[in-house]
Design goal:
The protein has 295 residues and is α/β, with parallel strands linked by helices. The protein contains 14 helices and nine strands. α9 packs across α12 (234-250), α9 crosses α13 (256-272) and α12 (234-250) runs antiparallel to α13 (256-272).
């Protein structure tokens, strides 16, 4: 399978597309924005006019889109991916959406003899650029085996979780934990500063102790250097936590701690939704009158 299509040329999708091109895949792209298209073309990609045309031109299509509504918009309709699908075609969705969306599009594609994997990714833009993403996949084992070598272009830990939607469930579990961790870390860092302890020293010690999480590595430098440009925005994190809470309601699962984390993320979203998730600390800084800076 040499011909690959990619839709969703954002901070994740563009470097993923570049990796596909760099290892020799003939790669086609579609985007509503001209800038990402021009960048992808400079890497060696070819432009398709519509998702339908792209689907007809390639063996495998990968999508990396922000919300379930965008998936429906790109997949369905007269010029959507499903309209161009046929027997043997494969779609891999790297978006973080919900299980219902995965099952819905998988069913529509199966009616045309096409295959589908939900394959959310973790590792952020840095992992996408380095080609070291973790990829959690839901769908048929055969489809996974066929496409794993392609995903190895940008992923270094790729796991088949189970049936369609399973990869999405794991991604939602991960991101609801990120929300809780970032809310707790905001309190941790501000409490350190308020107690007269350098947050950088507290971080260094906790990193070697039982309280450490990878979320600390993500946030500490951004907070201390006051660099809140979005790598992964609060808006997107809040969307993912809401999807996790919706899933919890469907399976009658109480998530008391996650609900508290969601409230903290929602509070930060009001003013800082387009900022990086490390900016979840900002409302607490404002309440306490403390602004953390590197000493």
């Amino acid at each position: 399978m040499k011909k690959i299509g990619f839709i969703g040329l954002g901070t994740m999708g563009l470097p993923m597309t570049k990796h596909l091109i760099d290892i020799g895949h003939e790669t086609y792209v579609v985007s509503r924005s001209r800038g990402p298209i021009e960048t992808a073309i400079s890497y060696g990609a070819h432009e398709s006019r519509t998702p339908k045309e792209l689907m007809e031109q390639v063996d495998v299509v990968m999508t990396c889109l922000p919300v379930p509504e965008t998936i429906i918009d790109v997949y369905e309709g007269e010029q959507g991916l499903i309209a161009g699908a046929s027997k043997g075609k494969i779609i891999i969705d790297h978006s973080t959406v919900n299980r219902e969306t995965n099952i819905h599009v998988s069913t529509l594609l199966a009616e045309k003899g096409a295959m589908f994997l939900d394959a959310p990714v973790s590792g952020g833009p840095m992992g996408a650029q380095a080609g070291t993403l973790t990829i959690m996949c839901g769908g048929e084992q055969e489809t996974f085996e066929l496409t794993k070598p392609i995903m190895e272009a940008f992923g270094d830990y790729i796991v088949h979780v189970g049936p369609t939607g399973s990869g999405t469930v794991v991604k939602l579990l991960n991101n609801m934990l990120v929300g809780v961790h970032q809310a707790a870390l905001a309190e941790c860092y501000v409490m350190a500063e308020k107690s007269g302890v350098d947050p950088a020293i507290a971080y260094d010690l906790i990193k070697r102790s039982a309280g450490f999480s990878k979320s600390m590595d993500w946030s500490v430098d951004a907070i201390l250097d006051r660099k809140f440009e979005p790598r992964f925005s609060i808006d997107l994190l809040h969307k993912d936590i809401r999807l996790a809470l919706e899933l919890a309601e469907q399976i009658d699962m109480p998530l008391d701690v996650v609900k508290l984390g969601e409230r903290k993320v929602a509070e930060a979203k009001e003013k800082y939704g387009n900022k990086d998730i490390s900016a979840i600390i900002r409302p607490l800084e404002e309440k306490t009158g403390i602004t953390l800076k590197r000493r």
